[in-house]
Write a structure and sequence with these properties.
four-stranded parallel β-sheet; 11 helices; single chain
């Protein structure tokens, strides 16, 4: 097995969130991701860096982009990957989350990649298993690899993160993507604002260090990055918006609203997109300014870097233990 490149800037055996990471640790992950971008564009995309390692994708929520991206990342690094379908697992038969954790722990995986509908569930799992854990999204808490791939996409296009003005627009209340991005962008020196109706903002959003706007034209003024969020109707219990038509009228991104941002502002969306709800097809498909497909490409490289890094960090800790 090829030796994993030592990464002294990331000492954590898990990746549970962006909050609490240092700027140097984030930069280290982004720098490593850059090398994987180039690797993934070559004819031979595989490297045996994680040959002999086992990764289990444990998704309690459905996912296409994130699960497939992690699976591809594992295979390109030479790891064995198992995708656990919760819909047919023992959990559906009454097994508790902790019993599942202990069962998986007995199989000696190297990494668990976990997506769960409840905030904090991934952290709880990490405390009960002996392997590394990567958070693939927990409730409305965090989605760290999405924020990292967004940052990599921005950095490759704008050559920096510091000093950029980023508008995060839409359903901030239910968005783990928004929280992870806010933590990362603030840590890296960007200026972040959120644009949303009052009903789709957390009541304590101010403590995250963002400017707040309820008008798209005002919020997008002078922005370098316009990051749209999906309207997460599956998490809504109650009426948060008058109608989809009204929501798009006031908060959906179209050419008229985008005109308030800088002429070279980038358009981002974590996917899946609800066209005609939070974003108009004209701007989503703008080949000059939309980087939505680049985000998907960066996702594989970032997840390769995260897998490599947490395994190396856990290996280093293990050698240092008495």
């Amino acid at each position: 097995m090829n030796k994993i490149v030592s990464n002294t800037f990331f000492p954590h055996g898990h990746l549970l969130g962006i909050e609490g990471l240092l700027a140097g640790e984030i930069s280290s992950l982004l720098d490593l991701s850059e090398s994987h971008v180039e690797q993934n564009r070559q004819a031979n995309k595989k490297r045996p860096l994680l040959q002999g390692r086992t990764v289990i994708n444990l998704f309690f929520e459905s996912s296409t982009r994130t699960r497939t991206s992690f699976e591809l990342a594992c295979k390109r690094l030479g790891a064995d990957v198992i995708n656990m379908s919760v819909s047919t697992s023992a959990i559906k038969k009454g097994e508790t989350l902790l019993d599942t954790a202990m069962t998986l722990n007995a199989m000696h995986p190297d990494v668990l990649v976990v997506r769960h509908p409840h905030s904090g569930a991934v952290k709880l799992l990490s405390e009960k298993v002996a392997c590394s854990v990567i958070n693939a999204g927990d409730g409305s808490h965090e989605h760290p690899t999405q924020a990292l791939l967004d940052a990599l996409t921005i950095r490759r296009r704008k050559k920096r993160l510091q000093g950029l003005r980023v508008a995060i627009c839409g359903d901030v209340l239910h968005s783990r993507v928004a929280r992870s991005n806010i933590h990362l962008l603030n840590t890296m020196g960007a200026n972040v604002c959120v644009v949303a109706p009052v009903t789709l903002l957390p009541i304590d959003i101010e403590r995250l260090g963002v400017e707040i706007f309820h008008d798209m034209a005002q919020g997008l003024k002078g922005c370098d990055i316009v990051m749209m969020l999906r309207l997460q109707r599956e998490r809504m219990n109650g009426n948060f918006i008058p109608s989809l038509r009204e929501y798009f009228r006031f908060f959906g991104l179209d050419a008229e609203k985008l005109a308030s941002a800088k002429p070279d502002a980038l358009i981002m969306h974590p996917g899946p997109m609800n066209r005609g709800v939070e974003i108009d097809s004209e701007v989503a498909d703008d080949i000059a300014r939309s980087v939505i497909h680049e985000q998907v490409e960066m996702g594989v490289a970032v997840r390769m870097a995260c897998l490599e890094t947490v395994i190396q960090a856990a290996e280093t800790k293990g050698k240092a233990a008495p």
